[in-house]
Automatic annotation (TrEMBL):
It catalyses: adenine + H2O + H(+) = hypoxanthine + NH4(+). This is Adenine deaminase. Transmembrane segments: none annotated. Zn(2+) binds at residues 20, 22, 227, 307. Its cofactor is Zn(2+). HAMAP family: Adenine_deaminase. Pfam families: A_deaminase. Belongs to the metallo-dependent hydrolases superfamily. Adenosine and AMP deaminases family. Adenine deaminase type 2 subfamily. Residues 15-361 form the Adenosine deaminase domain.
Length: 372
C-alpha cells in the first residue's frame, strides 16, 4: 500500500530514525528454516503445530495473530534457531541493510538475551555478534546504531537481575555520565549497550516488576525505556515513567489520560509508536485508529517504527506509507515527526545536528514539489 509516487519518494528518502525494532523480530520464516537446518535445531513438529510445516504455512500463520501473547509464542520459538555469534551478526546486518534501503540514518535496536541464555547460548556470543553487525552497518552505510538490551516481563525478576549484573560486570552498559571528569578511566569506558528496555507480555506481570533494576540503572546514568500502553491501559505508561523510563515503547493508550498526555508533551518524552504492529496484534482495527493525529495536535513527540517487521510484514518505510495513507499528513507534519525522532535519539549533539540538517534539506526540496 503506497501513496502516489512523489509522496513515496519523499517518504523513502526522508532521513529516518528507528527506535523500536527487535532484532529477533527480523527473523523471517526463510531464515528461521535455514538456521534451524544449519544449527540442527528442532522446530515444533507440524503434527503439534501445523504452522511449522513449511515457510509458506508459517508465513500464512503470521497474518493471523490474535494478540500480543499469540505473536510472542511464535517470536520466542523463532529465535531458538540463533546459536553462534555469526548468526546474530548476520541477523543484525540484514536488518540494517533493509533499514538503510528504507532511508533509516539512525537505528536503535532491541535484543532479548534472556531467552537465548536460558537455552545455553553465552551472553558474549550474543552481544559480540550483534555488535559486529552494528559495526559493519556503520562502516558500510554510515548509519549510526545503538543496542538496547530488553528484560522480559514473562520471566522472573531474578533472571533479569542476573542479566543486568553480567552486562554491568562486562562494562557493556553505556552511561550518559561517562565523560564526567570525576570518573576513573575504567568507569569512562564506553559501553556497547546504549540503554535498557523491557518487553514481552504486558497485562499480567506486575507493572513495576523492574523497579529495583531501573532504580539502579537510573542512578548510574544508564538510558532507560519500557514497552507500555500497547495492550495495557495508560496506567502502565504512568508506572513506566514513575520507575524511570525516559521513553515509552508503543504508548498508544496515552490518549486515555489527558493529564498524563500533557505531561508527556511538556517533558518531550518520546513514544516509539508501531502502527502496523498495533494492527497485526489487534490492539487497533486499522492504522487510522492509532492516535497519530491526537499526538500531533497535543504536541506529543513520537517516532514511527516497525517493531517486528519479519512477523508483521512491514519494514519501516511501509509503516510510514501506511500512516500517510491513513492520515494524509503535510510535509511540515512529517518534518516534525522526523525531527522529534532525532531529538529523542540517544546520540550526541553533533550527530543530532547532522541529521536535523539532512531533514531540513530534504523537506525544503520536496515541499515545493508536493505542496506547490
Ligand atoms: N510488545 C512486547 N514485547 C515484544 C514486542 C511487542 O510489541 N515485540 C517483541 N517483543
Ligand atoms: Zn516492541
Amino acid at each position: 500500500m503506497c501513496p502516489p509516487s512523489t509522496w513515496h519518494t519523499f517518504l523513502t528518502h526522508l532521513p529516518k530514525c528507528e527506535h523500536h525494532v527487535h532484532l529477533e523480530g527480523c527473523l523471517t520464516p526463510t531464515l528461521i528454516f535455514h538456521l534451524a537446518t544449519k544449527n540442527n535445531i528442532q522446530l515444533p513438529s507440524p503434527t503439534k503445530n501445523p504452522a511449522y510445516a513449511s515457510i509458506a504455512t508459517l508465513t500464512a500463520r503470521y497474518g493471523h495473530f490474535t494478540s500480543l501473547d499469540d505473536f510472542l509464542s511464535f517470536y520466542f520459538i523463532g529465535m531458538t534457531v540463533l546459536k553462534h555469534a555469526s548468526d546474530f551478526e548476520e541477523l543484525a546486518y540484514a536488518y540494517f541493510q533493509r533499514a538503510h534501503e528504507d532511508g533509516v540514518h539512525h537505528a536503535e535496536v532491541f535484543f532479548d538475551p534472556q531467552v537465548h541464555m536460558e537455552r545455553g547460548v553465552q551472553y558474549e556470543e550474543i552481544v559480540s555478534g550483534y555488535v559486529a553487525g552494528c559495526r559493519r552497518a556503520e562502516k558500510e552505510w554510515g548509519i549510526s546504531t545503538r543496542l538496547i538490551m530488553c528484560f522480559l516481563k514473562h520471566l522472573s525478576v531474578e533472571s533479569a537481575g542476573r542479566l543486568y549484573e553480567i552486562a554491568l560486570e562486562a562494562g557493556h552498559l553505556y552511561t550518559t555520565t561517562a565523560d564526567s571528569n570525576n570518573k576513573s578511566e575504567e568507569e569512562k569506558k564506553e559501553g556497547v549497550i546504549h540503554g535498557l528496555g523491557c518487553s514481552s507480555t504486558e497485562v499480567g506481570p506486575p507493572k513495576d516488576m523492574f523497579r529495583d533494576i531501573y532504580a539502579s540503572a537510573s542512578a548510574r546514568g544508564i538510558n532507560l525505556t519500557a514497552h507500555a500502553g500497547e495492550e495495557g491501559d495508560s496506567s502502565y505508561i504512568a508506572t513506566a515513567l514513575e520507575i524511570g523510563a525516559q521513553r515509552i515503547d508503543h504508548g498508544i493508550r496515552l490518549g486515555e489520560d489527558e493529564e498524563l498526555m500533557r505531561r508527556v508533551a511538556r517533558e518531550g518524552i518520546l513514544l516509539t509508536v508501531c502502527p502496523v504492529s498495533n494492527v497485526q496484534l489487534k490492539c487497533v482495527s486499522s492504522v487510522a485508529e492509532v492516535p497519530i493525529r491526537k499526538f500531533l495536535d497535543a504536541g506529543v513527540r513520537f517516532s514511527i517504527n516497525s517493531d517486528d517487521p519479519a512477523y508483521f510484514g512491514a519494514y519501516v518505510l511501509e509503516c510510514y506509507c501506511q500512516v500517510q495513507e491513513a492520515f494524509g499528513l503535510s510535509v511540515e507534519e512529517w518534518r516534525v515527526i522526523a525531527e522529534n525522532g532525532v531529538r529523542g535519539s540517544w546520540i550526541g549533539e553533533e550527530r543530532k545536528r547532522e541529521l536535523l540538517e539532512r531533514i531540513d534539506a530534504h523537506v525544503k526540496e520536496y515541499k515545493v514539489l508536493l505542496e506547490g
